[in-house]
Please model this.
Amino acid sequence: LAKTTQPISMDSYEGQEVNITCSHNNIATNDYITWYQQFPSQGPRFIIQGYKTKVTNEVASLFIPADRKSSTLSLPRVSLSDTAVYYCLVGDEGTGRRALTFGSGTRLQVQP
Amino acid sequence: DGGITQSPKYLFRKEGQNVTLSCEQNLNHDAMYWYRQDPGQGLRLIYYSQIVNDFQKGDIAEGYSVSREKKESFPLTVTSAQKNPTAFYLCASRRGPPLSEQYFGPGTRLTVT
Model:
């Protein structure tokens, strides 16, 4: 399974754009990149998934360079409610043959 | 109202007792998962099942057992062989490719004393 490396924590202020980068140097050809958000004492919630280039939905954007060895989750204009842990996962979600591994994630703290 | 339910939300047991955590989904998802989360840590995979009557060990299966007799249900038993059972347990399900994100239940916080 591809190992991922993320910053342990990040701080931001309300209204700012936050970019969280994840390194996955040994990503395989069939692997997708998926990001989840988790609030305390709750299950993680899917944010976004991508394979290459850029993916955007109503809450975030995911930027993936051509070599796919890293990815960046971009949260536009964060609010206090975006304070959470964000997990980057890399794996063969497309076929479902393998279960993914959650690392320790990035703890984002948004200040007023 | 579709989703994943886990019960109970809080569970207390004495050391040496087996305990079964419930996980039910009405999303018609094929795959189901059990994770364990310790304070300040990420999720660690215990067991997963891609289809009824089949399941695979995850990274930390020792001291746990599961069954998958029905598509909707994936109960987890924490046995007395699990050395440190106190944790937050999360169940998830996944529809399958191509839109294959996992949907998580609310979790069960197990305390063993």
Notes: The first strand of chain A starts at residue 9 and ends at 13.
